[in-house]
Amino acid sequence: MRLPPDIVKACIGFAPQAGVTGTVLPEIRKTRSFGVAPVDPLNLLQDPTILRQLLGDFAEQTMRLQEENRALGIDLTCATAVIENQEPIVEAYAEIVETGEAVCITDAAKLIGVPPSALFEHMRDQAGDEPWIYCRTGRPEVAFQTRINRDELDQKAVPYKRPDGSVGIRSMVVVLPRGLFILRAEMQQRERDRRRAAGEFDL
């Protein structure tokens, strides 16, 4: 049997030529190894020192896994609670998006899961990158034209009943499905920023 050249070179590099040809090479040909005696695991377990070390390592790994599982259980419990609380809102939101229905700002706030006043405040915020609506004194809210052009908002004429019984027409901003999706993401980010600034834990 011919040995691979790399094995022969390694042997020659670490032993005199006579030792290689007289001892090393014959043993390698016979056992496919050299200088390493086989170890019986059962003999290792009979050594009290090794056995104590193995039991200690096993106990340490067990405790670490228990802590990881406990932490994972807490995280899963919190995540499950959040999902359960958000599920009705998500279902209603998905229904609106699928049907393509436009909703007023108050109904949009309910679908997003925030107070209407908070959503109105966010949409009127002129300090943001791009506000959604503006309001003139004594007049209803008006959607920014850029939001209308991107199919995020719309301005609709809505009939209403006057005190004298006659019917009037007033303008109202409605949120389209695309705008509802964006507003939901913006309000979630706003809440995360608020909690982070307050030092609260964020799931």
What features would you describe in this structure?
The chain is 62% helix and 13% strand. The protein is α+β, with helices and mostly antiparallel strands. The chain has two domains: 41-99; 101-197, no CATH class. A hairpin with a 5-residue loop joins strand 2 (133-135) and strand 3 (141-143). It is elongated, with a radius of gyration of 37 Å. The chain starts with a helix and ends in a 6-residue tail after the last helix.
Highlighted features:
about 200 residues, alpha+beta, 2 domains, three-stranded antiparallel sheet, two-stranded antiparallel sheet, 8 helices, about 60% helix, about 15% strand
Tell me briefly what this model is.
With 203 residues, the chain is of the alpha+beta class.
Layout of strands and helices, then pairs:
Elements: H1 5-14, H2 17-31, H3 41-45, H4 48-99, E1 103-104, H5 105-112, H6 116-124, E2 133-135, E3 141-143, H7 145-149, E4 153-161, E5 167-175, H8 177-197
Antiparallel strand pairs: 1-5, 2-3, 4-5
Helix content: 55-70%
List the quaternary state of the chains.
single chain
Unreliable segments of 5+ consecutive residues: 14-18
Largest sheet: 3 strands, antiparallel
Coarse structural class? alpha+beta
* Radius of gyration (Å): 37 Å
Described by the principal axes of the CA atoms, the overall outline is elongated
Q: Please, how many domains?
A: 2
